[in-house]
Design brief:
heterodimer, A: alpha/beta, Globin-like, Transcription Regulator spoIIAA, 2 domains, five-stranded mixed sheet, 11 helices, B: Heat Shock Protein 90, five-stranded antiparallel sheet, 37% helix
């Protein structure tokens, strides 16, 4: 157990407003206050709130073990703070600075309070230092976690955005693929394409791979599976957007796309699809 | 003669994409034509994926090489995985120990100018490829 001495907590409580003032000044030196993304009032309010949580928690809690329930409020406060900082676009250094800038004012305060007792001073300083470090680490960890959540959400959104199945003509669907084709994406692509084939009763699906930078054996395997599935649904598939360098690479790789209709670009594929549907495009007279 | 070199870690599917991008930059740097860039990058894609899937992760060493007047990219894919018991079999079109198409290794060989594979059971695998401009 490492509980802070009552004298320390009393000292903090008695000098709360002075401590707060120098903490906020310290925050300002670190550039935390001259930022349009967050107001001075917000920072002051957060500082005041956290200080009171810290005092309450350290009065009954073990300063060496932040996993205990006494620290729950402080932890939750910091997690919320990190999340909002991450959303506002601050970096991790800025976010952690919130905690670390409390060190100096707190140390100054303790130095005065324990001027007569250097041994107690050093043990209290050590404990406070450990405590603030752990809180700072917790802040950074929460910050990182919220950032990862943001990235994950964006990834998922991107995944959905990247598979737009468009209707080119009555009975003709097109899927322009962009980016890297990994197993997860292919799965999403295949599902949405097959679903749209059922919904629209389309007979021809065109997969355009102009935006796929590398066609290797895995991509080819995914394409072959997709084509097979489309055929099983009773529709036909055309792959378009085979650029010259991709064509030569496919030949050298030894890939057999023999059973699949391929076209150099989407326009050719559409022309073929129209022809198969028995449609012709003619220039309007006059 | 080596002019510059470095190493990329290949541990996950994401690293396969990153190594492809890195190699494309190198290929452009030493003046490979678009077709040769694409061939080299595709070979990298195959070998890097093998490193992840069959080798359990490894590294890719890259170097820009010069020989007389020509420039090129040399890459070494190495892992400390289970190794390949029968290289001759592994270098057969359509043979796979996993569930791919069985064209990655042989295809990569056809896509580059020089290809060398060294492997033994329990000793990992080392594939060296070079593409000249």
């Amino acid at each position: 157990m490492a509980i802070l001495q009552q004298a320390t907590i009393d000292a903090i409580k008695q000098n709360e407003s002075a401590l707060l003032a120098s903490w906020i000044e310290n925050l300002g030196d670190g550039g935390s206050l001259n930022d349009s993304r967050i107001s001075r009032e917000d920072v002051s309010r957060q500082a005041r709130e956290f200080l009171s949580l810290l005092v309450t928690a350290s009065a009954n809690g073990d300063a060496a073990d932040l996993t205990r329930s006494e620290w729950l409020d402080s932890r939750q406060f910091l997690e919320a703070l990190s999340r909002s900082r991450a959303m506002q676009g601050f970096d991790s250094q800025h976010t952690a600075h919130f905690i670390f800038s409390l060190k100096r004012p707190l140390f100054d305060l303790l130095q005065k309070a324990y001027a007569a007792d250097p041994r107690a001073l050093s043990s209290e300083l050590w404990m406070i230092s450990e405590l603030l470090d752990t809180l700072g680490m917790h802040t950074i960890r929460s910050f990182q976690k919220s950032r990862e959540e943001v990235i994950l959400r964006q990834q998922e959104e991107l995944l959905e955005l990247s598979t737009p199945v468009v209707k080119l003509w009555e009975g003709v669907l097109a899927l322009p693929m962009i980016g890297t084709l990994d197993s997860q994406r292919t799965q999403v692509v295949m599902e949405s394409l097959l679903q749209r084939i059922v919904e629209t009763g389309s007979e021809i699906a065109i997969i355009d791979i102009t935006g796929v930078p590398t066609v290797d054996t895995l991509v080819a395997q995914h394409l072959l599976k997709t084509v097979t599935a489309i055929r099983l649904m009773g529709a036909d598939c055309i792959i378009s957007g085979i650029r010259p360098q991709i064509a030569q690479t496919i030949v050298h790789l030894g890939l057999d796309l023999g059973g699949i209709v391929t076209k150099a670009n989407l326009a050719d594929a559409l022309a073929l699809a129209l022809k198969r549907s028995g449609l012709t495009v003619t220039k309007a007279a006059g | 003669m080596t002019t510059r070199s470095g190493t990329h870690a290949i541990r996950s599917e994401q690293d396969v994409v990153l190594s492809r991008q890195a190699v494309r930059k190198l290929a452009i740097e030493c003046g490979l034509r678009l077709v040769d860039q694409t061939k080299l990058v595709t070979a990298v894609s195959e070998l890097a994926r093998n490193t992840v899937i069959y080798g359990g992760g490894g590294d890719m060493d890259w170097e820009l090489v010069e020989d007389g007047g020509r420039k090129g990219v040399r890459l070494v894919f190495r892992d400390e995985g289970p190794g390949i018991p029968d290289i001759k079999q592994a270098m057969t079109d359509g043979w796979t120990s996993g569930n791919g198409l069985g064209l990655g290794l042989t295809g990569a060989k056809r896509l580059v100018d020089q290809f060398d594979i060294q492997s033994a059971p329990g000793e990992g695998t080392r594939v060296t490829i070079t593409k000249w401009n």
